[in-house]
Write a structure and sequence with these properties.
By secondary structure, this protein is α/β, with parallel strands linked by helices. Helices cover 57% and strands 13% of the residues. Strands 2-3-1-4-5 form a five-stranded parallel sheet, with helices on both faces. It starts with a helix and ends with a helix. It binds shikimate-3-phosphate (S3P). The site of shikimate-3-phosphate has 10 residues, from loops.
Length: 182
């Protein structure tokens, strides 16, 4: 294999951003399986490192501590390749995080609607920021506030509100293959 081909094997990371419940983890797992790339789920990674759930980290150490862990992980990922990364929904709030993730990856924004997110998360209690009496309202409010951050961060936007996981996965694979050919 010549040097060019070898260099191309060092594929850029596939980085998934989007609101909680938009399907980043499911899409990421499937991509990693098909493409045989390492999968990093940021929340999962932090939970394992801290030996605590995200809920416990927020309750016992506070949100700023969790954000610090996210920041550190983004920095580490800035110099990696060939991975599929499912970010936490709040990662985009830091420009520093986005710069780090962009350094080594293509950023795909899984964009959905508040209704679909509320439906996906109706039986979920693992998101500390959504453990409130009116979850649907909180989702609407947070999505409105977050949207400019997602829009500012992505390279590719994918509407997943009416789309099957397989379609999203296929789209991302085709896109990354085309990019690698360039
Ligand atoms: C958060 C999203 C969560 C998790 C934490 C905070 C957010 O990740 O990082 O509960 O601020 O949007 P998911 O998007 O994977 O649910």
């Amino acid at each position: 294999m010549n040097d060019l081909r070898t260099a191309k094997k060092k594929n850029k990371n596939i980085v998934l951003i989007g609101f909680m419940g938009s399907g980043k983890t499911s899409v990421g797992k499937r991509l990693s399986m098909i493409l045989k790339r390492e999968f990093i789920d940021m929340d999962d990674y932090i939970e394992k490192r801290e030996q605590m759930t995200v809920n416990e980290i927020f309750a016992q150490k506070g949100e700023p501590y969790f954000r610090e862990q996210e920041r550190e992980l983004c920095k580490r990922l800035a110099n990696s390749y060939n991975k599929v990364v499912a970010t936490g929904g709040g990662v985009v709030k830091s420009a520093e995080n986005i710069a780090a993730l962009k350094n080594s990856g293509i950023i795909f924004y899984l964009c959905s609607t508040p209704e679909k997110i509320a439906e996906n998360l109706k039986n979920d209690s693992s998101r500390p920021l959504l453990n409130v009496p009116d979850k649907a309202d909180k989702i609407r409010q947070m999505m409105k506030e977050r949207e400019p951050f997602y829009k500012n961060a992505y390279d590719v936007e994918i509407d997943v509100s009416n789309s099957e996981i397989d379609k999203t996965v296929e789209y991302i694979i085709n896109y990354t293959e085309r990019e690698a050919e360039k």
